[in-house]
Amino acid sequence: MIKKVTYLVVLCFPFLLFSQTNAVTEYGDQVILMDDGTWSYLDEEANLIEEIPENNSIFEKDKNAKFLLKSSVFNIGIWMNTKQWKFSKASENEDAEYELALKGEDLYGTVITEKVEIPLKALREIAISNAKDVAPDTKITDQEYRTVNGVKVLMLKMSGTMSGIKFAYFGYYYSNDKGTVQIILFTSQNLMEEYNSKVETLLNGFVEL
Questions:
Q1: Residues 86-105: pLDDT tens digits?
Q2: For the whole model, what pTM was predicted?
Q3: 7-48+58-208: CATH, from 3.40.630.30, 3.40.50.2300, 3.40.225.10, 3.40.1000.10
Q4: What is the per-residue DSSP string for 163-177?
């Protein structure tokens, strides 16, 4: 079974309640009504550019990322700075392998691994579909292919709303013939810009072993 990329958000924030309502306008458009009075088109993501651009910049692990967190599912790992980040085996989300958190801050993450190989473009569709199960107004705000430590990954940034709280997600997605990994960091939208460099640094610790 393909795993839910945003399930951990609900577990970390148990006070969140599902409060969006689907509706149809007099013109037949499907919309999502939010509890704060705002709305958005249900098929807004259909306007996404189908061709995912490729970023030719060099993405490498940080020199201070000295601890290698290895997956026990397949041949990937994440170099991280344990002075800044803490991790644990996933205990609440049975679909995740690890849970991550920036020490003393409101930035969280999950590492989901499985043995199924999934093409990166298909992985994007799965990610957005699963995110919408939790926040129906979820949309991709940025996407591109990157080469990280010599490995091609898909980078996705998404945003969505739950019970009036706006969340932002920033993740790397990768698959080979041994399995698939989704590394997703998340926080509120108003904090993501502040945490952006720390998120980038952690994600750029990703390696194929």
A1: 999 988 777 799 999 999 99
A2: 0.79
A3: 3.40.1000.10
A4: TTEEEEEEEEEEEET
